[in-house]
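Just curious: can you write whichever protein you like plus the matching structure tokens?

***
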Amino acid sequence: MEQIIELGNAQLVEQGATGLSVRGIARGLGMVSSAIYRYVGSRDELLTLLISDAYADLADTVDAAVATAEAGTGGDPRARFLALGDAMCAWAITHPERWTLLYGTPVRDYSAPADTTNADGTRVMQVVLRIAADAAEQGDDGARVAPGEADLAPEVIALLESHLAEFGVETTPATEFAALTVWSSLVGVISAHVFGQLGADAAAIGERILDAQIRMLAELITRC
């Protein structure tokens, strides 16, 4: 299975998600095409394997960076978020095809199974939420930018509360909403860089732009 994932990631680099081929992986392994289907039954199963692997690798990278920042700063929320953002950026720049698979245009006629991909797919979001919860607990109420619960629709609050129970993080729906907004913004600014959406001039200094954007988001999350 490790070899299948390795060859699948190589196909991603060479051809993109639309060029994934189970038969091509069989050739790479030196086996007949019928034999590979004992391990991967279809292109969709291969996609799911690669998505789960990418989510896990990204989350492991983020966890290691945040743990190092936490040990070095005594758990400072801003330092932890900066480490998280920098780790996500570095991973995306190193693995643009895998980032595209996770956060780019959805693959046509494919829907990732939640029971397989959600556990690793939500790990980074959970770390962002814990950072926001810690910042809210330590922060000054007067400096917060998170919306009050009165500003959120009841169905939004109900959804947020269900996620808080699922993630096991003790904080308010308003703080979770702010964390979700910061996380979405982080994915957005990284994607804008990876996909060249800001144009050639910005791409030339893209990492400096990203650095400033991550620090702006760090200021927001510490005021959740």
About this structure: The CA atoms of residues 44 and 109 lie 9 Å apart. The mean pLDDT is 91. Residues 43-73 form the longest helix (31 residues).
